[in-house]
């Protein structure tokens, strides 16, 4: 199975995608880890796309891919079978983003091994590059885009799973466990 988990920053994509990958016994691939280099430098698009191609090709039995990066859709959605969209309400998503940013800044957690990239309170709460501002800017546009994608004939080969709450997400994971037990 080839799955892409998408949603606005703070929606819980990474946590959900890791759980899903573990449950399905599939490799977990995080787009942020492929994109971000040391000192918060992004990877040029041509290199980024090639990294994605290589990661996906190295797992022909399937994978769970975590991340949006809309410009990567022609690569990541070429063979994807299912897109799981975590579409929680704005208040919940923003609160989760605030809590995550504060926790990471407090703990000084390195986000992607080997990059040295860590969130700080200044960066998260008082910067133009704030993940919180990104969440504010993209929540609505992501909803519009993914709703349109679900209707787009170019993506008719994809099964979209639209999860609107943590309870729906838990029920989805539980249903997968039950399906695996039955087969």
TrEMBL record:
Would you say which domain of life the source belongs to?
Answer: Bacteria
Q: Which residues form a coiled coil?
A: none
A GO MF annotation of the entry reads: kinase activity
Is the keyword Transferase assigned to this protein?
A: yes
Q: Give UniProt keywords alphabetically.
A: Kinase, Transferase
On whether Kinase is a keyword of this UniProt record, the answer is yes
Name of the protein = Adenylate kinase
Organism, as annotated = Franconibacter pulveris
């Amino acid at each position: 199975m080839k799955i892409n988990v998408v949603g606005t920053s703070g929606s819980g994509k990474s946590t959900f995608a890791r759980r899903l990958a573990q449950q399905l016994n599939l490799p977990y691939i995080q787009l942020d880890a492929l994109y971000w280099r040391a000192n918060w430098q992004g990877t040029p698009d041509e290199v980024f796309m090639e990294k994605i191609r290589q990661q996906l090709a190295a797992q022909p039995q399937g994978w769970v891919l975590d991340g949006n990066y809309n410009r990567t859709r022609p690569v990541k959605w070429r063979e994807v079978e299912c897109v799981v969209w975590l579409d929680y309400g704005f208040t919940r998503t923003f609160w989760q983003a605030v809590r995550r940013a504060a926790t990471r800044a407090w703990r000084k957690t390195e986000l992607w091994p080997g990059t040295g990239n860590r969130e700080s309170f200044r960066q998260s709460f008082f910067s133009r590059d704030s993940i919180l501002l990104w969440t504010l800017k993209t929540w609505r546009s992501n909803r519009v885009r993914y709703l349109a994608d679900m209707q787009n004939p170019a993506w008719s080969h994809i099964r979209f799973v639209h999860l609107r709450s943590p309870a729906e997400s838990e029920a989805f994971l539980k249903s997968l466990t039950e399906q695996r037990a039955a087969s």
